[in-house]
Amino acid sequence: MGVKISSNIVFLGTGGDSYVVGKQLRASGGIILQIGEDQFHIDPGPGALNMAAQTGINLRANTALLVSHNHINHCNDINVVIDAMTYGGFDKKGVLVANNTSINGAESYTPFLQKYYRDFLERFIVLEEGKRVGINDVEILALKAKHSEPNALGFKFITPEYTLAYSGDTIYSAEIAAQYDDSNILILNVPYLKREEGKDNLCKEDAIKIISRVKPRLAIITHFGANFLKADPLYEAREIQKETSVQTIAAKDGMIVNPISYSVEQGQKTLYKYAREEGIRVQEYAKKEQEKVKELNEMIEKQTTLVQDNSESEDQQNN
Question: Is 1 within a domain?
Fold first, then answer.
């Protein structure tokens, strides 16, 4: 029997539309997925640094940064998070997994990601719908999304213990819902209470359709718009649970969920053969974190001593 890995989902923000994010009625720092010694930061929107500090998340521990699409509420803080991860590029590390627009831009879209900060990373990977990448023992599948940003994606994380699907921003279709099959945990961005509120995202009715089809062990709704907040997400989650008979919770800023608790009936398995032979492997930074910090502190101490010695030498010469 394999050793159980530690795992957490931490919500650094649950705000969705421009009104909610602009007034910070709900935070917008993205989602942290911790799997053993790896840490994945999904969609670092405005306030990611502040929320990480408030929730005790060490951004230096990020193994990978994932961006579903190039909208301000999903990647505004991408550069500052990379800066924090790498000590301003002093310790080049980590990988960025993102849709094409977030890295290369598109018509009407300039990437929020700056090349200067992109070069602080060990590597960056452009994912398209249906493509996979292996990061240590986690396989990430890019899911189709239909949104106003033309290359928007969702992500499915296939781990040794469970499978988690994240919708990103998308409208409903049967094709899109089918991608979430075999997920133990399903995280849906649901800004709208009613369909007439907008055309580019999920509404409550869409969430009910998807959850009823997928039947995950746990469904989490997040990314709330103004009307959803007014209606009370907690109440709406209970209504969705009644309709679907699936445990459904409304995310809150700073909320922590242990996905292992919901993985008794495991879905897909990580393709270990794929990960070993073809997957893009990423250095296990967490194991070496303390050593790196020690090395950096020693280097800073040496530089400080050198400056002091030079200063004393100059003073002696002047005297």
Answer: no
pLDDT tens, per residue, the chain with 319 residues: 444 557 999 999 999 999 999 999 999 999 999 999 999 999 999 999 999 999 999 999 999 999 999 999 999 999 999 999 999 999 999 999 999 999 999 989 999 999 999 999 999 999 999 999 999 999 999 999 999 999 999 999 999 999 999 999 999 999 999 999 999 999 999 999 999 998 999 999 999 999 999 999 999 999 999 999 999 999 999 999 999 999 999 999 999 999 988 765 544 555 443 333 334 444 443 444 456 556 666 666 666 666 566 656 656 665 5
From the list 122, 101, 34, 47, the residue with the least C-alpha distance to 78 is 47
The enclosing domain of 269 has a CATH number of 3.60.15.10
Q: Is 307 inside a domain boundary?
A: yes
26-45: burial string, b at 16+ Cβ within 10 Å, e else: bbbbbbbbbbbbbbbbbbbb
Q: Which of 79, 62, 59 is nearest to 70 (CA)?
A: 79
Domain shared by 102 and 112, yes or no: yes
- Coil, strand or helix at 185: strand
Pair (304, 163) in one structural domain: no
Distance CA 155, CA 67 (A): 9
Residues 304, 219 share a domain: no
